[in-house]
Amino acid sequence: MQYTSELLEELNVLSQLNLSTTQQGIKVHSDASESVIAATARLFEKGLLSQADGGYPTTLGMEAAKHAQALLGLLK
């Protein structure tokens, strides 16, 4: 499996989540790029975010964000 542009956008959204708390979410506004809006909606559909426009990370979302941010840190 290769990283697609859609998966990379999802990873970018996950990298914006604050790992120190589940009480801080993200809000994707309607003027955001179409790819960010779509990525956020896909993360919601996958059960990683509480709302289609962002919201709070689910337990699974926090785990995914930890892995995404760790990978990003290793590659930098």
Question: In brief, what are we looking at here?
Answer:
This protein is mainly α and 76 residues long. The protein contains three helices and three strands, in the order H-E-H-E-E-H.
Shape: globular
Spans where pLDDT lies below 50 across 5 or more residues = none
**What is the alpha-carbon Rg in Å?**
12 Å
Termini separation: 22 Å
DSSP summary: helix tally: 3
* Class from secondary-structure proportions: mainly alpha
**Helix share bin:** 40-55%
Mean pLDDT: 94
User: How much beta, percentage-wise?
Assistant: 5-15%
Give the H and E element order: HEHEEH
Number of strands: 3
How are the strands of the largest sheet arranged? 1-3-2
For the largest beta-sheet, the strand count, sense and barrel status come to: 3 strands, antiparallel
